[in-house]
């Protein structure tokens, strides 16, 4: 066990739980408080919250691990795609979904397309977000077992329940304010580590020379073109299709705040990836990547090499923060999908707000237990599992969502067919292993797009009320 | 009331794997500059 790092990690976990308890009373006041923090989050808090929600274990451990193993062009493909995710979401959906007043993605589908599309989308959210927690829990288990010196399965259970407690107690309020703290600790840890590496090497030129001396192929494009393009496409859509990220727009005070939060969130994310650039180079110069059982662990090796125990503990807490701040947002998306979109709207419309938030709380614990059971024997490496989730959401949600905002003629039958057709085709392609890993959305997403357009045009236009709603999404309300 | 498509298309269509700057493929540098382009247009 790493004693100093372990103590810092435990202090961090206790602090997160205290935040959850602090917001418990406020979160249980209403559904709006529990799922969207009363739609009152400001730009500063919102920027760190959206950054922390989108930057998960794969942004730090996964990107650095893949850069060390597959070369610098692969690392920058990762950054190039994921850093365009928030701007693209801002250009195409942020202001519009905030103006719609929806509480969740299925809620948006309900007001734009009606009940059947809402229920299908709620099922997709619950399935995808539950599976998305698996790579996060896997990463938490790896770090926890390393620092605390306990079994991987035990670490996964302890840390999984750890973030569920504060998320379930405090809802979006606790998740947003823990994200603010987690985003800061993540950024502080990565920038400090990068600065120490820079000072150690003296200049960027020396760093690149050392890395190329250790691994002459570090600067090369080492994989087929399709691997880079598939990765880029999966990540660039992530800000639009991931309910855990899109929900941050619902929590913003207004459309203007949602946009500014996304802009500053992007700026913080660039700093994180520039720090990761230095950490990747340091990882290569260690020359140990061939000896590691799991290449995602190279990040931890760099931390051990360059940081004293106290700073190392903060950096590892930052890694856990990256994991938890994304996983708690996934839990909230699952919880809203079950409690708000299915139970309140279709099973028991007269349910009180307290009973809906209680069901949301229970749903989170059920979801995390399912996630932990799968994560104890994970079905793939972290980056591949994240790729599956992104591909599934893009193939099902991506085009019905964007066309629902921008194209009046998109109707209920078109959206339902595109969503179901894309989802089913994606699952068939994964199960049959007909394509290279993570290349499935290159086929399934365009099929979803064609289905939405063709079926909408072949059937009657949506009612005028729904078409007027599209105008409203693009209308500035000036009080 | 999405420059992103044009710049991305240039990078992936050109794909200059045989041009190097400071030992690193130009592909990586084009993407590195792309990060700043994303923030500027945002």
Automatic annotation (TrEMBL), chain A:
It comes from the Bacteria. The keyword Cell membrane applies. InterPro entries: Na/Glc_symporter_sf, Na/solute_symporter, Na/solute_symporter_CS, Sodium:Solute_Symporter. It is a multi-pass membrane protein. The keyword Cell wall biogenesis/degradation does not apply. It catalyses: L-proline(in) + Na(+)(in) = L-proline(out) + Na(+)(out). This is SSS family transporter. It comes from Salinicoccus halitifaciens. The lineage of its organism: Bacteria, Bacillati, Bacillota, Bacilli, Bacillales.
